[in-house]
Amino acid sequence: MISNRQRRFAGIFAASAAAALVLAACGSSDSADSGDSGGGDGEACTVKVGVATGQTGGLAYVDVPSLEGFDLWKDEVNAAGGIDGKFQVETIVKDTRSDAAQSATVAAELLGEGISFLITPGDADPSIAAGQLAQEAQVPAMSWFGSAPILPAAVGDFMFSNAFGDNSQARVLADYATEQGYTTAYTLGSPDSAYTSNLPKYFAVAFQDNGGTIVGEGTYTMGQPNFNVIADQIKALNPQPDVIMTPAYEPDFPTFLKSIRGAGINIPVLGTDGIDSPTTLALGPIADGVVYTTAGVLAPEGPQAEYFEKFNAKYGKDPEAIFAVTGYELGLILNAAVTQAQSCDPVAIKDAITNLEGVQGITGKIGFKGGDRMAIREIALIKVVNGQRELIALVAPDPTRVPAA
Q: pLDDT-derived band of residue 6, with 50, 70 and 90 as boundaries?
């Protein structure tokens, strides 16, 4: 028997071939039924989670370890009888190939499966494409770690991110730069994504608010083979900047760093969470001194010691990126929301996430209440020293000093 909810999702699936038309139609006020999942008023049910993320392509360095962490959480919670001892978790995973259009197609397919919760890639652009379909279906969606603060606003009240906002991490970087005595800065961004386009702007606002001056602004095309022209432009600046800030991530960040260091430019470099990967650490001496913001320092000690043991037992390796930890934490967020909602109903889960406060994660406490559907969490400031991550500080930026999204 086909439920009303399945018919509704089937309509969305049928429109996936014309995803742009479906996206334009978002904003319906209709509410999704609880359908075949059941689970109202504390009744036992299965939470079906659709995972529309980049298991291949440019976002795999975020999405693959994130899914590993989430799967570890899922195995643990199901072995313990389910969320709150009664809500089992089922995942349906589909590869978006790190492509925005494919993310919309995959999201439509997953919504056609009658899911209660959708996980989207660790970047805003494909998450918006997938999230707008979830908004239409009134199913909560959450990005692994898409940090563009425009993400929830671009989709609607069913869209969340497990990340802090780019404007928040830009404030942390600007304050660090000022504390180091840097008074001039050069920023490098790309118009090819919301992340790489907006982060330099947020940093400029925060740095200038601190009394600093932006002496140059460069742009690049994502995936370009070298940054030699950019290096020449930086060398020609007079005066030379005290610091360079860029949200470039792999493969662009390694290419950029090699280009400027090869050109004899030894100006300190500030980066963002997109470079928190083994690739950065493997760059050798040229990466020494790079400072970046991320969700936490990955190390088999303190609160992460037990997690490392569990991860190693399941996968036969240590986690290589903090995203393996934040993926597990996304499971903890879902656990708290379903426990509060006592339901597998998507709308009830969405309402619960909206009001979450102080969920204990591995990197610290996480909440959403009052955060415009971006996660409220501490930001770690990391320095690369001899190919290792060294924690500088954990920062909770003052919301009144964070640049507007």
A: very low
pLDDT (tens digit, 9 = 90+) per residue, 13-50?
Answer: 444 433 433 333 333 333 333 334 455 667 899 999 99
- Sign of the four-CA dihedral 353, 357, 360, 365: positive
10 and 124, same domain (yes or no): yes
| Total tally of structural domains belonging to the chain | 2
Q: Are residues 323 and 273 in the same domain?
A: no
* Segment 104-115, tens digit of pLDDT: 999 999 999 999
Q: Tokens 């009134």 label which residue? A: 138
Same domain, 216 and 179: yes
Q: 250 and 101 share a domain? A: no
Q: Are residues 268 and 335 in the same domain?
A: no
Q: Are residues 239 and 388 in the same domain?
A: yes
The enclosing domain of 362 has a CATH number of 3.40.50.2300
pLDDT for 405: 86
Residue 14 belongs to what domain range? 4-163+303-374
**Integer Cα distance of 50 and 99 in angstroms:** 17
Residues 102 and 9 both lie in one domain: yes
- HEC states along the chain? CCCHHHHHHHHHHHCHHHHHHHHHCCCCCCCCCCHHHCCHHHCCEEEEEEEEECCCCCCHHHHHHHHHHHHHHHHHHHHCCCECCCEEEEEEEEECCCCHHHHHHHHHHHHCCCCCEEEECCCHHHHHHHHHHHHHHCCCEEECCCCCCHHHHHHCCCEEECCCCHHHHHHHHHHHHHHCCCCEEEEEECCCCHHHHHHHHHHHHHHHHCCCEEEEEEECCCCCCCCHHHHHHHHCCCCCCCEEECCCCCCHHHHHHHHHHHCCCCCCEEECHHHCCHHHHCCHHHHCCCEEEECCCCCCCHHHHHHHHHHHHHHCCCCCCCHHHHHHHHHHHHHHHHHHHCCCCHHHHHHHHHCCCCEECCCCEEECCCCCCECECCEEEEEEECCEEEEEEEECCCHHHCCCC
